[in-house]
Specification:
Four copies of one chain form a homotetramer. The first copy, chain A, is α/β, with parallel strands linked by helices and 341 residues long. The first copy, chain A, contains 14 helices and 13 strands.
C-alpha cells in the first residue's frame, strides 16, 4: 500500500534522529532553558530576518493555535478566520474551550480577502450594539491554507495593513509553512511573513520533525509570563531540548527549506502525472496538497492499493480527493501511483 | 558539573531511540490509530492485569492531569488533592483553567489520609449549604508523591473504598510511577494500582521516554468521545505512533521496571552515602528523590560542582535540598558526588 | 418623544408592583425556596399542561441561555443555532465564554429549517473526521425569532422529531414567548411548546415583569445539582421570591396572555397604520416587532419625535426600521405616531 | 415564627417600592443608559468622595465577584483570599468557572493580616519556580467579613500599601458594607474604602434593595469594554434603571446609612440581651451578625419558635449559632426573642 493521506505519516528527517541519538545522554535544564533551544531560536531569527523575534516551541498545531489566540485576546474578543480555517472547523472547539468565539468570514479556496475583512471590521465598529457582540480581536489565516492555497505578498500586505489600522494582531498558522515558502508559485518569503504578521508559527510536525511548532512573536508582543501560559495550557514540554534540537537541525544548512522543496517537487510531478493522464484538477494547488477529480468507481478501485483522502463529492458520479506529498515522499511512490492511474 | 536536579535531564533510553530510527520511514495513520500504539496498549493491559483497561497516550503530565480531571468532573465539581499536590501547587492553574477548583486537604509528606478524606466528604454531604459549595467529584493522589513518598497497599485500598462509597473516581498521578513500583519499600504492584484506582497514568517523561504518559481507565469509565476531548485540550499528537512506540518499547521485556529499579538502586546508594558521611535526612524517602539536610555554606560550595534542587529552609543555617536519580544516573556520577561531600 | 425601540422600556405590569408592595415585609427563605416560587411553578406547570415540568427562575435572557446551554452540553459539544440567533449574534460571546461553540445554520427570517438541520446532522455523523470537529449537542431556536417570526406547529414538530432521533435536546428561547403565543397568526400553544421542546424559557423581562425568566425542563431532564450550577453562573437570586412572585402574578388569571395579546393588538394596529398610509413592510411580522421600509430622509425627520430601531440599509435611499410594541404600549402612542407618518 | 436567619429575608425598603411605582410607566433606554442610573452614580461618587469613580450596577454578589475578579486578572493570575472568603467557600466555584484559582491565606475571624499577605507575596516572587505557579494578581477581602468582623483603617491601609507595592488591585466585597460603615466599633468610612481599594462593591441586596450591587472602580481602572464583559457574564440587566433607581433612592438623604444604622442598633440590642441573660458570645461581632453559644438542647427547643443559622459545633453539648438583624428588623422581633431566651 502506498500512502498519500497526509504529510505526517512518517517519523522525522534522519538528521533529526541522528542528532537526538548523538546528544541523548547529555544533561540539560528543562522547559526550553537549554542550549539547543537557544541556538535554534537564533537560527530562526536569522532566517526570519527579524532580530527582535521572540520564539517559543510547542508540540502541536491545535495546542499552538489555542495558546496563541487565547493569550493575545481579551475576554471580550474573538478571532476572525475563514469559515474553513482549521481553528473554526477541525480543532474540536479548542478555541471556544478557552472562552473565545471564532468569527467566520467567507473564503475563496481557503483564503479570506482584504475587502471582506475590511468590510467586516468597518461594519462592526459602526454597529451601535457592538458591546453586545464579540469584538474582533485578531485575524487568523493559514498559509498554506487548508486547501493548499497561498496568499500573495500583496494580499498578505493588505491584510496586515488592515490589522494594523485596527490595532489587532495578524496571526498566521504555518503548520505547512515550508511547503508554502518553497512553492513554485509564490512571491512570499519567510522575512515577508515576519514583517507582515504579528505572530505566526513555523510548522515542524508536517515538515520533517517528529513533532513541534515554533511560535514567532515578531514585534515585542509576547504576552507577559508566556511560560506560565504555556504551562497552564499543558503545552510546556519538560524536555524542551527535544524541540530545540529538532528546530536547530531544521534550520541548519537550510534543511527545512530543502526538504520542503522536495515535497513540492514531488507534488508538481504528481499533479503533472494526473494532468497528462487526462484527469481534471479540482483546483491548481501550488503546494504539497493536490486536489484531483476522480470517478467514484475509480476511487474505490484505487483505494485497494493507494491510500489518500476523500475531500468532498463533486457530482453524482465524481468526487474530489486529496493527495499529499511530504519531505519523505519517495520517487518510487510516484512511480507506483503512475502505474495505477 | 554533575546534575541531580531532576529525572528529566537526559533524552530517552537508547532502546527507544533505536526503535524510532528503525521504524522511522514507515507510514502509519495518525492520532494513535497505528499498530505500535495498539501493541503498547495490549502490553500495558497485561502489565496491569486489567484486560478491560482503556488506554490513551498523551505528551506531558500537566496536560494529562488537566485533561483527565476536566473530562471526569461535572461542572459543579472540583478535585480533592493534598495541598502539596502537583495539580494544586505547580501547574500554573491548569486545573482551574478548565473551570474546576482544587479542593485542598492537609498532607503528611505529600500524602492524604483516609481519615481526613473521609471526614471531609462526610462533612460536605452533611452541610445544608452544599449547593453553594464546590462538590468533591474526584480524588487526586500522586504516587510517588511530590515528596517521593508512597502509599501502602492498605492506604490505597482505604482511599479506594471511600471513593467507591461516595461514587467518585480515584485518580493516581504516576508521573514517577516506575520509581514507586520498584522501591525497596513498597507492597504496591501495578495490578494493585489498576485495581484500586478508577484512572491513573503511567509516567514516561521521567522514566525513560523522550516524553509521554499513558492514561489508563480501569473500569469501562472512559469519557465519551475522549479523542475529541484530547483534541480540544491540544493533547492529541498527530504522529501518535511516537508515543505508542515508546510505550511499546518500555513495556517489552520489562524495560520500564528494570530502568526504574536502576534509579532506585542509585537513590539508595546516594542516601547511604550521605548517611555514612554523617549527613541528616530530612525524610527517609523510599524512591528516587532524596531529601538531605545541608549547611547553607556547604550548599553554596557544593553547587559549584554539582547541580541539585533547593527544597526549603530548615533553620537559620541549614536547608533541605533534593537529589534526584533516574534511569540514566551513572555510577560515576555517584562516585564523583561522594568525593565532594 | 414616543418610544418604540423595544419591549423593555417600562417597569412592570402594575399588578406585579402591587403584589411586591403587599408582600414586602414578609420574611421568606432565599434562593427560590419560598411559597411564591412554589405557587408560580405550579401555575406554570398547569399552563404548560406538563405536570412533570421542573422549573427554575433566572434574571435575564443571556444569563439563561448560557446557563441552560452550558449545563446540558458535554464539553465536546456545541449548540446549533440560526446564524441570526441571539446566542450567536448578540450575547457578547456568553456561550463561548462557557467553552462551547455555536454551530451556525442558515436562516430564513430568523428561522432554521428541518431540512437544513437534518442535512447538517446527517453530514456530521457521516464525517469520518468528526472527532476533530465540534459535536452538535443541542438545537437552539428562538420563538418569536429575532425577526419577530414564528415557527408553525408542523415546523416545531419536525425539528423536535429530528432532535429526538439524534437524542439531542431542542431548546427554545422564549424571551418574547407571550407575543408569539398571542399572535393572530400562530397555531402553536404553550402546551405544544412543552411537548416539542426538551427545555425552554418563558420570558418575563420583555413581557410585563421587572425582570425574570422561567426555565422549564419538560422531561425529567434537569441537570444534576442545577441550583449549584445557577450559583456558579452567578444566576441564583438571593431573594428568589421576587422572581416567584412576579411569575405567580403573571400566571394568575391569564395575565401573561392578556398583556401579550394587548401588545399584539397594538402591533397589528401599527402595521395596518403604515400599510394604509402606503408604506411598505420589509416583512409581514406576526408578532410585536414590525419591520417597515422608510426613506432615509424621512427616518431622520421622524427620529426627532419618535424613537425606534434602525435595522439595516435596504438600498441607496431607503432603510428597514423596527417598531416594537409591548404590554405597556398605549393607544395614545399609536395616535401620536399616526399623525407623524 | 420569628426569623433571624439572614439579612435578605424581606423585600425592599418601602421608599424603593414607592419610587418603582412612581416611575413605573416611564420609558427609558436599557442597560444602564438611563437618568436614574446616572443620578445614582453621581450620588455614590459624592458619598465616596471619589469624583473619578466609575460605577456599574449588577444584580447579585456572586455574579459581581466573578465578573470583577475575572475582568481584572490575567489568565495566569489568581485571587488571594482568606480561606473563609465567600469566593473561596460559598460561591459554587464561580471564580474557578472563569478560569482563575483562589489562593487561600489563613484567616483570623475572617480577616487576613498584612503580615501573612506580605510574607505570601514575598515568598511567591522569590520562588524560582513561580512560572509553574499561579500568580497572585489581586487581593480579595470582605468587609464586614463572613464572620461579621471589620478591618480597622490601619489594617486596610496596610493591605492597600502592600497591594500597591506589588501593583495588584485590592478588591473589597461589600455585600454588607452598610452594616460595616455604621458599626459602633469602626473607624473606617466610605471615602476611606474608596481611597484604600482599587475596586469594591456596595451591597444592596442585603441592605434595603430588592437586589443589586454597585461596583466602584476608584482609580480609572475599569477594564476596557466593561459593558461587553457584563453582557458576557450574563450580568447586564436589560431594565438597568431598576438598579439605578434603587441605588438612587438608597443614596438620597443618606437612606443607606440610616437603615444600616438601624440594623446595627438592633444587633447591639440583641447581643446585649443575650449577654444580660448570661449567654456567652462566640465572638464579639461589631456588625449585624451575632454569634452566640447555645446548648444543643436549647437550640432545638428555640428553633420551634425562632429561625436562625446553625454555624458550627463548639463542643459535645454546645454549638455556635448566628442571629442576623437587618434594615427591616422590628423591635417586636427582639421583644419576642427576649421572652424565649
Amino acid at each position: 500500500m502506498w500512502y498519500f493521506d497526509s504529510d505526517y505519516l512518517e517519523g522525522a528527517h534522519p538528521e533529526i534522529l541522528r542528532r537526538l541519538a548523538e546528544t541523548n545522554l547529555e544533561q540539560t535544564p528543562g522547559y526550553g532553558e537549554d542550549e539547543y533551544s537557544r541556538s535554534a531560536k537564533a537560527k530562526i531569527r536569522t532566517a526570519c530576518d527579524c532580530p527582535a523575534a521572540d520564539i517559543y516551541f510547542t508540540v502541536g498545531g491545535t495546542q499552538t493555535n489555542a495558546l496563541v489566540i487565547d493569550s493575545l485576546l481579551h475576554s471580550y474578543e474573538g478571532v476572525v478566520s475563514a469559515r474553513t480555517g482549521h481553528v473554526n472547523a477541525h480543532e474540536s472547539g479548542a478555541i471556544e474551550f478557552t472562552g473565545h468565539k471564532v468569527l467566520p468570514l467567507p473564503h475563496c479556496q481557503g483564503k479570506i480577502s482584504a475587502s471582506d475583512l475590511s468590510a467586516y471590521l468597518a461594519g462592526f465598529w459602526k454597529d451601535e450594539n457592538r458591546e453586545h457582540m464579540v469584538f474582533p480581536g485578531m485575524v487568523y489565516i493559514s498559509h498554506p491554507t487548508e486547501y493548499g492555497t497561498l496568499y500573495t505578498k500583496d494580499e498578505l500586505s493588505a491584510l496586515s495593513d488592515i490589522c494594523r489600522a485596527y490595532r489587532i494582531p495578524l496571526y498566521l498558522d504555518g503548520a505547512r509553512l515550508g511547503y508554502g515558502l518553497m512553492s513554485h508559485h509564490t512571491d512570499v518569503t519567510l522575512p515577508d511573513i515576519a514583517k507582515f504578521c504579528d505572530v505566526f508559527y513555523i510548522g515542524g510536525t508536517k515538515v520533517g520533525a517528529l513533532f513541534g511548532e515554533a511560535i514567532v512573536f515578531t514585534c515585542q508582543n509576547t504576552p507577559a509570563h508566556f511560560t506560565a501560559l504555556l504551562k497552564q495550557h499543558g503545552a510546556l514540554l519538560a524536555k524542551g531540548r527535544i524541540l530545540g534540537l529538532q528546530f536547530d537541525t531544521l534550520f541548519t544548512d537550510d534543511l527545512y527549506f530543502q526538504i520542503s522543496a522536495h515535497a513540492i517537487d514531488m507534488a508538481e510531478l504528481l499533479k503533472e502525472m494526473f494532468i497528462q493522464k487526462g484527469y481534471e484538477l479540482f483546483m491548481d494547488s501550488p503546494t504539497n496538497q493536490q486536489f484531483i477529480i476522480l470517478e467514484n468507481d475509480f476511487i474505490e478501485k484505487l483505494q485497494n492499493e493507494v491510500s489518500f483522502s476523500y475531500w468532498e463529492p463533486l457530482d453524482d458520479h465524481r468526487s474530489v480527493v486529496r493527495f499529499a506529498t511530504s519531505w519523505a515522499t519517495a520517487t518510487e511512490q510516484l512511480d507506483a501511483l503512475e502505474k495505477l492511474i
